[in-house]
Every structure is written in structure tokens, then in C-alpha cells.
Amino acid sequence: MNTSLHARYAARTVPRYTSYPTAPHFTGAVGADLYESWLAALAPEAPVSLYLHVPYCRAICHYCGCHTKAARRDDPVVDYAERLVDEIGLVADTIGHRLGVAHVHWGGGTPSLLPAPSFRAVVAALKSRFRFLDGAEHAIELDPRTVTPELAAMLAEAGITRTSLGVQDFDPAVQKAMGRVQPFPVVEQAVAALRAVGIEAINFDLMYGLPHQTAETIRSTVDLAMRLGPTRIALFGYAHVPWFKKHQRLIDEMALPGATERLALEATAREALAACGFLPIGLDHFARPDDEMARAEADGTLRRNFQGYTTDQADTLIGFGASSIGRMPQGFVQNDPDIGRWSRAVEAGRLPVVKGKALDADDRLRGAIIERLMCDYRVDLAAVTAAHGVGLAAIADGVERLAELTRDGLVAIEDNTVLITEAGRPFVRLAAAAFDAYLAQAAARHSMAV
Questions:
Q1: Helix (H, G, I), strand (E, B) or coil at 135
Q2: Tally of CB atoms within 10 A around 417
Q3: Residues whose CB is less than 8 angstroms from the CB of residue 124 and which lie 6 or more positions away in sequence, other chains included
Q4: 259 and 3 in contact (C-beta within 8 Å)?
Q5: Which of 160, 185, 332, 426 is the least buried, fewest Cβ under 10 Å from its Cβ?
Q6: DSSP string covering 382-412
């Protein structure tokens, strides 16, 4: 493919498809009352997953796209943890029975900012109101700068089995430009502290598309990361959305790589990871061949949710905390993103859901197609439509919208199976977007396709 074609596709903006329909299409038609009925209808025998959102950091990094705010004192974080405990009880009371849990994920923000008594109180609430199943994964996102031997010991005590460290880039100039200075020894010490308490499953988040990145700096970042022996890598493209995240205006746009340069940076990192024996998993994850995510990719059971690619097979994800998103068998729900309103609702004994999306048959069909494309780079349209009780005509519009990608060699269609070609893999989100019935209905602005 020629360079101009690369640039033309890479510069397009589409959703990341961690859900379908995507969050911009959630509405107030789904609120607390409907969520209550969905929770009460959960089957006692079906395992669920839990997500806890902690929207606080000590300072906001320039590149951050998360729902978080700066908290230089512990007081608001302690208060927030108390409301989390209350929300856990409120949700559990609504469910009416003690569900089994297969996955728990803490995100943020910086969940490890919770003081030790607060963190332990939230974990105790989870374990008293839910049943942690044998082999349950208990994961947490960490800022390496906050990881101390004492924190690592507390995480092990709580049963944390996997950690994800926000490394992003090791180059000093890039770190300064993105507002997150954490030299290699800081990350090295964090990894050592975690391994010292027996936490071996350690993921690194790396990014491409950051200011001042070059092929040399990103290759060096991968080399340094490999010295620390991570088990998985998530390689994300920086999403520059200053109209949505105003602190990103602190990043000099002139220092950002263009669409063609972003593609080259991603390819450089991908090649460096492959040379170290990491297998590509979907669009942006990499794992060692013996990792369960690599096995899930190989046997076709890889899934995608709001945490990205996952081995989680549960159909229900219950979200706790301000802005958290959950998925019920009936549809999606999202808590109030305003911390104050979320807190007041919980204090008043109300489920803090303010919007969501009830799924209809077409949503389920298109969501299944999009997930398989994002996970497997292929989907058998005949099989999926048959499984949903409809014919191929139901998604004929999506096939038609693939025409441009097919003509340019990014997609192939054989016997009703859509295949993303090797050249098309960086652009899989564009193929997924072809089946998105909502994309043209709203003016939501999304990140670049690569």
C-alpha cells in the first residue's frame, strides 16, 4: 500500500469499539429504575465481573484521556471509598443473592491512591457481598510512581493477581512533553516490589503517537520494557482530543507525529515486540505464547469490553464508582460521571445510573460482528446472522460500506466471511465501523483510526 493511502485511512476518526453501541449513544432512557430491574433479574448461577472506578490522581498527566481529577489530599479519596462501600451494598441488596465473581478490575485514575484502610474496606465489602470464584482474576491499574513495598504487600494481601503499570514511554524528552516523568529505575523498583510479594502477572501499557517520539525512542522503550519481564503489553495510540480533555492543550500539537508517522511508530513497536517473542492479540495487545490471553486468541474465545481485550467470558459486568459503565444481559448502564452527584445519589440509597442503552436484536447482531472483527480479524456473516435468527440482508448495508476497504486491499470477502488482510489490520476499527448503525447519527468526535 502506498504512503498516501496509509495516511488517508489512518487520519480518519472512529470509535475504539470497547462496546456496541458506543458510549456517545447512551441516553437517559436507561436510568436507575430500569437498572434496578436488570440487577434483580440476574441469574444466581451465572458468574459476573466487577469494575471499580477511582477517579483521582495526584496530578493529571498531559496526555490523559481518563475520567479523573487531581486530589492532593487524602480526604476526598477516603470519602469516595466510603461511598464505594455503600454502592456495593446498594447493588448487592438489589440483586438479592450473593453472585459468583470471575473477574474484578480496578481502574481510574489511580486506584492505589486509596489509603490502606479505605482499600481494605472496599475489598472487604466486595468479598462479603459477592463470592470470589476459584481462579478469579483480581486486577488493578497502577501508576509506577506510587508503588512501594508496603503497597505491594497490601495488594497481595487483598488477593490481587494481576497488575497493569502505566509505563507509556521511557524517553526523558517524551516523558517531559507528556507530563509524566518516571525514569526507568522507578518502574524497575515498582516491578521488583510486586514480584517480591508474589504478583507475577504484570502488564505494561505503552503508547505511540506521543510528542517527540521517533522510531529510535519507541524501540528503546520496548527494549527497556523487556528487561523487566512483563507478561503482557498493551500498545495504545495516543488519542489527542483537546476539545474533550482540555488539559491535553498542554501538549504541543506541532510535536505530535502525523498520521503516517503514527503508523510507522506502531509498526516499529509491533516488530520489536514480535522479535522478543510476544504474540499480537487483536489490535493493540501482546502476550507471551503461554499467557491465557494468547490461548484465548488462538481458540477464538477472546472478548472485548471497556478494559480492552480480555479473557473474561461473563455476560454481566457491574460497574461501581462515578462514570463507571456496566453491561447487563439487557444492555449498558453508566453511573453519573459527576462525583458529587454520584455520591449524593448513593448516600440517598439510589442507584446512581443516569444513562445507558437497552439492546435490541439489531444491536446484538451488529455488536457480535464488531467484536469478532476486533478480536479475530474475521467474521462469518452467515453464521452470525443465522445465530441471531435473521438473514444476510439484515447487515447488507455494512457489507456495502466495506467496498472502499475491499477495493484498497484492506478487507477481503469470501463466501460471506469478512477477512481483514494483513495490510488492513491496523485499520480494523474502520471495518468495524462499517457495521455501526449509529455512527452517522451523531456528531461525536472520535480518535484517529491508527
A1: strand
A2: 13
A3: none
A4: no
A5: 185
A6: HHHHHHTT--GGGGHHHHHHTHHHHHTTSEE
Q: CA angle, corner 235, sides to 367 and 364, nearest 5?
A: 5
Give the span between the Cα atoms of 157 and 167, in whole angstroms.
24
SS3 250: helix
The pLDDT, as a whole number, for residue 290 is: 93
Q: Which three cell numbers stand for residue 238?
A: 495516543
Between residues 15 and 353, which one has the greater pLDDT?
Answer: 353
C-beta separation of 449 from 439 below 8 A = no
- How far apart CA 353 and CA 302 sit, in angstroms, is 28
Rounded CA separation 407/277 (Å):
33
- Is 149 in contact with 187 (CB distance < 8 Å)? no
Query: Hey, what's the cell of 428?
Result: 480494523
Supply the pLDDT for residue 235: 96
**For the stretch 213-250, what's the b/e string if a residue is b when 16 or more beta carbons lie within 10 angstroms of its beta carbon?**
bbeebbbebbebbbebebbbbbbbbbbbeeeebeebee
H helix intervals, 11-165: 32-40, 75-95, 116-129, 149-158
Q: State the amino acid at position 265 in one-letter form.
A: L
Question: How far apart are alpha carbons 294 and 286 in whole angstroms?
Answer: 8
203 in helix, strand or coil?
strand
The neighbouring-strand residues paired with 139 are 105, 162
- The torsion defined by the Cα of 329, 332, 337 and 342, in degrees rounded to 10, comes to -40
**CB count, 10 Å around CB of 2?**
8
Residue 245's pLDDT is 86
Query: What does the block give as the cell for 92?
Result: 448487592
Q: In this structure, are residues 12 and 426 in contact, taking their beta carbons and an 8 Å threshold?
A: no
C-beta separation of 206 from 168 below 8 A? yes
Residue among 365, 239, 332, 335 nearest 22 (CA): 332
Q: Which residue shows C-alpha cell 468526535?
A: 445
Q: What backbone phi and psi angles, to 5 degrees, belong to 367?
A: -65, -40
Question: Residue 232: what residue type?
Answer: R
Band of pLDDT at residue 442, cut at 50, 70 and 90: low
273 touches 235 (CB < 8 A): yes
pLDDT tens across 55-65, in order?
999 888 888 87
> Is residue 15 within 8 Å of residue 446, measured between CB atoms?
yes
Report the alpha-carbon distance of residue 91 to residue 39 in Å, rounded.
Answer: 8
For residue 338, name the pLDDT band (cuts at 50, 70, 90).
very high
